[in-house]
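In this section we walk through a basic example: taking a raw amino acid sequence and producing a predicted 3D structure, encoded as discrete structure tokens. The instruction is simple. Fold the sequence below.
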Amino acid sequence: MQIILKLTTACNLACSYCSEGDQEPMRLPEDFFYKLVGDIPEFCRETGETQIEFLFHGGEPLLYGREALHALTAYAREHLPDIEVKFLMQTNGFLIDEDWIELFVREKISVGVSLDGHPEIHDKYRRTKMGEPTAEKILENIRAMQAAGLSVGTLMVLNSGEDVEVQKLFDFITKEKLHPKIHPVIPCGRAEGCIDSREVYHHYTKLMEELCELALTHDQREAIQPLDELLDAVLGVAPMRECSFNGSCGQRFICP
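The resulting token sequence is shown next.
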């Protein structure tokens, strides 16, 4: 079971399609987390769950602070000794430094970074509040985490309603040794009413087909999701795990 925790709705960037929209910053109270952890043993006994994943989300979860985050992970490990506990984080990656990397390694936190393709695509939508580009800094931080031995996933949200040069995107993924999960932009938050969702999803399907052809042609070693899971399911290697394809959304995830 994965529990998705929005540590804060605050963010250091001003992404044009942000699903959070514009709202007053809020912070997850520590007491809420302690109560949640206290309820988990009974939940696991009733459901038979043996593993719990905490996914730290936002906003930008790094704004919660290193010491505060460490306090949460330490509390969960101390109070859930009989349950396999894992920690994940989805971050925009801009604020990562050596201290954060040391924490990720020490606490065994799996990190996903939002990176919407190569800089030409990414910087069109994901800039700082001052309007500055962010791609190169985020790429530097991804490389630093990779050098530290961390396996870094990337979440790419593409406005496929606009032209995407698929070969350039594929070359970027392979060059940077990324493990991306690619989603179409969703018309909510700041993107509500700004995009034609039917056009976006139609072009997204075409884009994924072309990426699949390139991956098969070049014997691509870096996983591109959801392509890998779809191919595994078609070939009978493994059941489809992506909930948006197998209809299990909400069954294995809790977002309190």
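Looking at the output, two observations stand out. The mean pLDDT is 90. The longest helix spans residues 197-217. In the next section we compare this with other chains.
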